[in-house]
Design brief:
This protein has 2 domains: 183 residues, Rossmann fold; 180 residues, Glycogen Phosphorylase B (Rossmann fold), CATH 3.40.50. Helices cover 40% and strands 16% of the residues. By secondary structure, the protein is an alpha/beta fold. It has a 7-stranded parallel β-sheet with strand order 3-2-1-4-5-6-7, with helices on both faces. Strands 10-9-8-11-12-13 form a 6-stranded parallel β-sheet, with helices on both faces.
């Protein structure tokens, strides 16, 4: 792939990510916001099947985007090719370089290549919910040593994430918290009738919605077990899993074995998440760890009555009995009791819904873009328009 250097670009976004997750959408929303402020931006993402829809969204928003094989990305921390990285950083240059990763740090070869080619120190946003480095181990020490030499700022979407970076040995003055954001307008305008029509449910049928990846981190089996306890006492509620993941077949089998096949639904991957949130009587996510959950922000913006866990990351946005009901991670009995309470108390749901919408306003895309603009202002290359 041959690409001409675009000297007109002011802010260059390079994504070491798959392209179909929340980390990619945050990068896209940031680039959109900076373009709306008059900055000339460009995005560069891996040439993967999972990045096709991201590139389409970029073009729909009028943002220039390149998909390139020079970036390697997969769920297992793909090893980068040094020759390809040299090509990448020689081809793409801009006064402000902003890297995004779904991992807890950038690949070591990326930082080494930047130093070798004398790439001006850039920015990186870290989106991983997992603490895959251990303080003082070889990889953490290498990251803590190399990061200050290649980067102006490491941006974390939560205080928990910032503390984690500092525990690896990264200088505290290098690490900044900028919370993730949510499109308030989009997620407040869902059509509740469309998903219910798909599921064959009427508008009054209680519906519990789990909209996240069906992976161990999100603990979907806790959601199923809590719902099973509620369903034993109440024949009306239904549960729907919106999303895909490695646990889907096991979840389907468990629902079948427990006689819940007609009340537990699997909607698969959906692009109209606002509609599914609007259809939720209760939104339920018993997750065990988060960086700063985009799914939580979406549920808040949709005004969902939320039941979730007070894990690290969630504890920075969820307020027990304020904008959500919360439990400890893994406490299925408490989750079942809270779920039953929410399903039986419309006034409680209404109160939580109003508080959720109010909380979501703190995490608007406009607020996030403003915070990033302040971070960029640390660079002498940045000129606010």
């Amino acid at each position: 792939m041959r690409v001409n250097v675009n000297s007109d670009v002011e802010i260059l976004y390079i994504g070491f990510l798959l392209g179909h997750g929340g980390d990619a959408m945050q990068m896209l929303d940031l680039a959109t916001g900076m373009a709306a402020r008059g900055h000339r931006v460009k995005l560069v993402v891996p040439e993967l099947d999972t990045s096709v829809s991201l590139a389409r969204l970029c073009r729909d928003r009028g943002l220039p985007v390149d998909r390139t094989s020079w970036i390697r990305s997969d769920a297992l921390r793909a090893k980068q090719n040094p020759v390809d990285l040299v090509r990448l950083f020689r081809t793409y240059r801009a006064p402000i370089l902003h890297l995004h990763t779904g991992d807890v740090c950038l690949p070591r070869l990326v930082l080494l290549t930047m130093r070798l080619l004398r790439v001006p120190r850039g920015f990186v946003t870290i989106q991983s919910p997992y603490n895959t480095l251990r303080p003082r181990d070889a990889r953490a020490r290498a990251w803590a040593y190399a990061a200050p030499r290649a980067l102006q700022q490491i941006i974390c979407p939560s205080q928990h994430s910032r503390r984690t970076q500092i525990s690896y040995g990264v200088p505290s003055e290098l690490v900044r918290t900028i919370y993730n954001s949510v499109d308030l307008k989009r997620f407040s305008q869902g059509d509740a009738l469309l998903p219910r029509k798909v599921l064959g449910l009427g508008p009054e049928t209680p519906l519990v919605v789990f909209s996240s990846r069906l992976e161990a981190q999100k603990r979907p089996f806790d959601a199923l077990q809590a719902f099973q306890r509620v369903a034993a006492a109440d024949r009306e509620p239904h549960l729907v899993f919106v999303g895909r993941g490695g646990l889907e077949l096991e979840l389907r089998a468990a629902a079948q074995q427990n006689g819940l096949a007609d009340r537990v639904h699997f909607a698969g991957f959906q692009t109209n998440i606002p509609d599914w949130l609007a259809a939720a009587t209760v939104w339920f996510l018993p997750t065990e760890s988060e960086n700063f959950s985009l799914a939580i922000l979406e549920a808040l913006a949709a005004g969902c009555p939320i039941l979730s866990t007070l894990c690290q990351g969630n504890d920075e946005v969820l307020e027990q009995a304020g904008n959500a009901l919360t439990t400890a991670v893994g406490d299925v009995e408490a989750q079942a009791a809270a779920l039953q309470r929410l399903l039986r108390q419309p006034a409680l749901r209404q109160s939580l819904s109003a508080a959720a919408r109010e909380s979501a306003r703190r995490y608007s895309v406009e607020n996030m873009v403003e915070e990033y603009s302040r971070a960029y202002a640390l660079s002498p290359s940045f000129r606010e328009t």
